[in-house]
Structure formats: structure tokens, C-alpha cells
Amino acid sequence: MNIPNMLTILRILLIPVYLYFFYSNIENNILFAGLIFILAGISDVLDGYIARKYNMSTTLGIVLDPIADKLMTFTILISFTTKGIIPIWILIALGIKEIMMILGGTILYLFKGKQVLPSNRYGKIATLSFYAATLSIVFRLPSIISRTLFFLTVTLNIIAFINYFIIYTKMRNNMNDDIVDK
Question: Is the pTM of this model over 0.70?
């Protein structure tokens, strides 16, 4: 178990801590939950940086990292929706995208030679937008800013999904071509 994998597991373990603070009755509960979210985000950046810089990528990390990301994303979306902070259509739109990504990633990994859909700038920009939108709630920015950021997040996630779908299709077809060539 290397440091990047431990950071990824830490991110998963921070989810119940986030939920504890988010649903607690303590003063500034959303701020404290948001600080946990920030800590998870920092650990996400660190685990990727360390894994790349020190050549510490592992199969476990490649599989676990996107799972940790999606678990945190769903946690934020569901908690914000249940408290009426964001409308349900945002949860549905982003939830469908994330479920499709999980299914596609699972198909590539299990049935197409353990391939992993690589992250790219579209996905990273969409993630950055999600963080900005979430933090706009945590730090109580005017609601027009939060609404705009969440709308932008949904739009960027749709663009990222289309891009990932194109990559997925090429990866799947290339694997099928390799099978036919053999």
C-alpha cells in the first residue's frame, strides 16, 4: 500500500465525516462539511501528483481513484439535494453522467483488456467547476452565483461526457479490431 493509495482511501473515509458534519445541528455545519470536502480535494490532487511524479501508479489506485471521486461527488449532490440547496435536476443530470461513466469504465476494465478510460482536460475542467459550485454554497456566495456555477457545472459535465463517450467508443472499437486481427 503506497502513499497515493492511502490518500485515496483517506478520501473515501472522509465521506462519512463530511456527512456527519453536514447533517449535524452544530453551528456552521455546512462550513465544516465543506472544509472536509476541501481536505478530500487536496488529497485527490496530492495522490495524483505523487503517483505521477514518483512513478507510484498501481492498478488499485487506477481503479480506486475514480471510485473515490464519484463517491464524493454523489455524496455532495445527494446531501445538497436532500437539504434543498440544489434542485433535483442537477443531481439527476450529474448522476446519470456519473453512472454512465462507471458503467463504461467497468466494461472497459472487465471486458476489454483491463483498459482504463483516461482523465482529460474536459473532465478536469468539469471537476473544477463542480468544486467551485460546491464551495460557492459552503462559503455562502450570493445564490445567483451558486446557481450559475451549478448550471455551468452541468453544461461542462455534459461536454466532458460527450468527449469521454467518443474516447470510450474508440477504445472499445480498437479492442474489437485487435480481436478480429488475431
Answer: yes
